[in-house]
Amino acid sequence: MFRHPRSIDLILLSLFFLQFSPPATAIRKDVSLKLKHYCKTTVQGRYNLTDDNGYVCDAFSIDPRSRCCPRRGDQFSCQGCNIGSQCCNSYEFCVSCCLNPEMTRIELALKVKIAKPVTAGIYGSIFDYCAGRCRHNSESVVHENAYLSEFHHCFSIQSNSSESSSAQLESTLAGINVIVGRQGESCDSACKSNGQSCVPNKLAVLNQCEVIKKYMSCKGACLSSVGADQPAEVVDDAPVHLSDRERED
Ligand SMILES: *[C@@H]1O[C@H](CO)[C@@H](O)[C@H](O)[C@H]1NC(C)=O
Ligand SMILES: *[C@@H]1O[C@H](CO)[C@@H](O)[C@H](O)[C@H]1NC(C)=O
């Protein structure tokens, strides 16, 4: 008798092929008709990922064939982003927000160098721009305070008009006396105790790093944040490690 264990393997293997090859060709026709677009996605983060249509989803809901997120929720969502500074507290929503043609002008984005050196290449697509830009940004100074550093996903195209804008700021604030209140003190109370009155519509003008740095110590860095109490400075005794859950309050 001739029985070699290897021949069994071969038989099993050919059975395997017989079983699986015919259905595969039947499916293929169908797929090539339906799928025009395979999505590019960000590398899976802690919770979510973003596809190049501008949708955010988790790894379980992504279409296994197309790699696209379901078209649920907002396209180009800016959840957790500060529109003014174009910085977000999550990488995924930074990419999604950045992909919005109204946020990022494609023709400018595709001229941006990937890195500083003159020889550095440029981004090949708006998705590559957003995925790269949100990950590293020279404006996002790494700071010892976790509360601030969570807003470090920024996608803005650097503007080179800072000098003219600082002159503009000065003129907007002409005649305004800037008073720094105590922690938790309202604008009304801080101004009243100095015999003046609060001008609420100028608070937004004050809420810019350039201005804030003039009046407050800003020991680490000045970064954008969101919330009702703006402008604001993080107090010295703020906890350094705030988890996501605590921050959502
Ligand atoms: C993940 O994405 C969903 C939307 O698809 C969003 O509601 C949720 O807040 C995101 N989770 C995190 C932790 O960003
Ligand atoms: C920066 O300035 C240069 C020349 O002054 C101009 O060509 C370029 O478009 C400007 N960049 C932005 C983002 O405005």
TrEMBL record:
Transmembrane in keyword set: yes
Record's keyword terms, sorted: Glycoprotein, Golgi apparatus, Membrane, Signal, Transmembrane, Transmembrane helix
Keyword Cell division in annotation: no
Entry-linked InterPro entries: SPRING1
Membrane topology summary: Single-pass membrane protein
Gene Ontology BP term (one): positive regulation of SREBP signaling pathway
Signal peptide: 1-26
Domain of life, source organism: Eukaryota
Record-level GO cellular component terms: Golgi membrane
Compartments, as annotated in UniProt: Golgi apparatus membrane
Family: Belongs to the SPRING family.
Name of the protein this chain belongs to: SREBP regulating gene protein
Organism taxonomic ancestry: Eukaryota, Viridiplantae, Streptophyta, Embryophyta, Tracheophyta
